[in-house]
Amino acid sequence: xxxxxxxxxxxxxxxxxxxxxxxxATAGSGPAVRMDPEYAKLVGAAASQGKSAxxxxxxxxxPRSMRSRAARCRTRCAASAWKPARPCS
Length: 89
Description:
Shape: flat
Number of strands: 0
């Protein structure tokens, strides 16, 4: 087997392992737990619902997520005094 093919396979394996661990780390932890309202404000609304505050790989790759990122970029570009090197799209 050529060294480049082995390197590509190892890279794909490591990437898959990384995405799998990321998915498991951000998966829902079960039913919502009751917590102090002040602590819920501190950690965010998602934590009080049994979800992770960090998005999982499926949420990051979703088209809806990409549209919202593009909207934030357009809002930042329109609100800022400087003009970016490339236009926001």
